[in-house]
């Protein structure tokens, strides 16, 4: 009959009443060790749900009888770490940035702290290696719009560049010579030729010689007669091979025609003094930092 038990003679185990392509299944019981392990995991799961946060609710999970949470554990670890480094941060905040090089151990701690802060706050614009990109300065070279000594870097980080409504911000304004019709299109082309010539990219010619006079009348007041720039005004050196937006003729023409007004955030309203000072120390350490007296 269909409900009659069939026993496998080799193992003495009951044969199940189904078959697939001639293959039959034995009703072999699970090993006791496996069953006890399975029961233990169930008990463990029930205990875990009671002791720890486990059951999702509308805006949070159940708290658990132990009152533990991963967020709380992280907060405690961060608080402990903050207590550990608080004396170092206090010493950095109380030490003038120009005095840090005279305290090598504190300077090194400031550099390492600045390295971490840079990865959080600065890589979005300057890149993970601080090499910058179009419109964002490379912080590894020795070309600085506003100065590359520790004090100048700290000032730039603190007050930013062209932050409206902040009187202490770095501020400069290049006219839009073409858009505002301060120069004709021909004069713009001539001054571009002049800049290309003084930067060593093109040979001097008739256009660059005409542009020399246009430059003297309109640009030298900020960039200097020789185009070497002026850090007090944030005017770049036009004679080197370092360009913030690009040194090809088309890009220079766009700069002269429309001007550039890049903005760097001020950080004094977002970061504490110690963090700003650590960032200044780190940027200064990247390779392009200058002595306190500047170049």
TrEMBL record:
It is found in: Cell inner membrane. Heme c 2 binds at residues 174, 219, 222-223. Heme c 1 binds at residues 122, 125-126, 264. InterPro entries: CcoP_N (IPR032858), CcoP_N_sf (IPR038414), Cyt_c-like_dom (IPR009056), Cyt_c-like_dom_sf (IPR036909), Cyt_C_IC (IPR008168), Cyt_c_oxidase_cbb3_su3 (IPR004678), Cytochrome_c_Oxidase_Subunit (IPR050597). Gene3D superfamilies: 6.10.280.130, Cytochrome c-like domain. Residues 109-199, 206-287 form the Cytochrome c domain. GO terms for molecular function: electron transfer activity; heme binding; iron ion binding; oxidoreductase activity. Its cofactor is heme c. GO terms for biological process: oxidative phosphorylation; proton transmembrane transport. Binds 2 heme C groups per subunit. Pathway: Energy metabolism; oxidative phosphorylation. SUPFAM superfamilies: Cytochrome c (SSF46626). The chain crosses the membrane at residues 33-55. Keywords: Cell inner membrane, Cell membrane, Electron transport, Heme, Hydrogen ion transport, Ion transport, Iron, Membrane, Metal-binding, Oxidoreductase, Repeat, Respiratory chain, Transmembrane, Transmembrane helix, Transport. One of its GO terms (cellular component) is plasma membrane. NCBIfam families: ccoP (TIGR00782). Belongs to the CcoP / FixP family. C-type cytochrome. Part of the cbb3-type cytochrome c oxidase complex. This is Cbb3-type cytochrome c oxidase subunit. It comes from Sphingobium indicum (strain DSM 16413 / CCM 7287 / MTCC 6362 / UT26 / NBRC 101211 / UT26S).
């Amino acid at each position: 009959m269909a409900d009659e038990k069939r026993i496998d003679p080799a193992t003495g185990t009951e044969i199940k009443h189904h078959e697939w392509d001639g293959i039959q299944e034995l009703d072999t019981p699970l090993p006791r060790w496996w069953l006890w392990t399975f029961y233990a995991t169930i008990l463990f799961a029930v205990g875990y749900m009671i002791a720890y946060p486990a059951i999702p609710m509308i805006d949070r999970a159940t708290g658990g009888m132990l009152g533990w949470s991963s967020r709380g554990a992280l907060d405690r670890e961060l608080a402990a770490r903050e207590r550990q480094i608080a004396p170092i941060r206090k010493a950095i905040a109380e030490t003038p940035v120009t005095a840090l090089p005279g305290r090598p151990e504190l300077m090194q701690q400031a550099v390492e702290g600045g390295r971490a802060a840079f990865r959080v706050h600065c890589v979005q614009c300057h890149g993970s290696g601080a090499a910058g990109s179009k419109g964002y300065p490379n912080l590894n070279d020795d070309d600085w719009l506003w100065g590359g000594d520790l004090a100048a870097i700290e000032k730039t980080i603190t007050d930013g560049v062209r932050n409206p409504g902040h009187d202490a911000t770095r501020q400069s304004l290049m006219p839009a010579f073409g858009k505002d019709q301060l120069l004709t299109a021909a004069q713009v082309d001539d001054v571009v030729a002049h800049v290309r010539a003084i930067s060593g990219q093109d040979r001097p010619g008739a256009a660059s010689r005409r542009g020399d006079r246009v430059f003297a009348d309109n640009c030298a007041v900020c960039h200097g007669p020789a185009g070497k720039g002026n850090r007090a005004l944030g005017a770049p050196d036009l004679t080197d091979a370092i360009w913030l937006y690009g040194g090809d003729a088309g890009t220079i023409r766009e700069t002269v025609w429309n001007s550039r007004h890049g903005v760097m955030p001020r950080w004094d309203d977002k970061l504490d003094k110690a963090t700003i000072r650590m960032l200044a120390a780190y940027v200064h350490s990247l390779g392009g930092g200058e002595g306190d007296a500047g170049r």
